[in-house]
Amino acid sequence: MNGEIVLVALIIIGLLGRSPIITTAACLLLIVKLIHFQRFLPVIERRGLEFGLLFLTLAVLVPFASGKMQVKDVTAAFTSWTGWVALFGGAVATYLNSRGLDLLKVDPQLIVGLVIGSIIGIVMLRGIPVGPLMAAGLTALILKIVQLIAGK
In sequence order, which residues have a C-beta less than 8 Å from that of residue 56 and are 6 or more positions away? Predict the structure, then answer.
């Protein structure tokens, strides 16, 4: 019953914060629970991130498939300073994502803080949730900096 209460609270928070992603996700999970399809929850938990990243990648690659992006646009990534910064940013982001995944494997209860922090970011900062891996990656980086400063 606690799970349903949390999901309803997330639906309300999503509605108040005008976050259709949080609202929809919480609604879908509540429906899964209410129609007794809990057996699918482990699959959603295990594969949901992969599916989310798949659809996110599909959305980013659509301009290539639709012809809106040409070879000249790709070469611009290697011939302009902003392109080089974007390449660097992409490399750093994927590195941080891998550190975030490692952190979640070692300390899985951090996901609670990441989810609540993401909700706060969505509702109060008008942020966009792109996934817990980046949040975990930033958390891993911040923890490493704090450890270096504290000498631990």
Answer: 130, 131
Q: What is the pLDDT along the chain (152 residues), one digit of tens a residue?
A: 688 998 998 888 878 777 788 889 899 999 999 998 989 998 888 888 788 878 888 998 999 899 898 888 888 778 989 989 989 999 999 899 899 988 988 887 887 788 788 888 887 888 877 767 788 999 999 999 999 999 86
Contact 128, 122 (CB under 8 A): yes
Instruction: Determine contact, residues 33/26, Cβ cutoff 8 Å.
Output: no
pTM of the model as a whole: 0.65
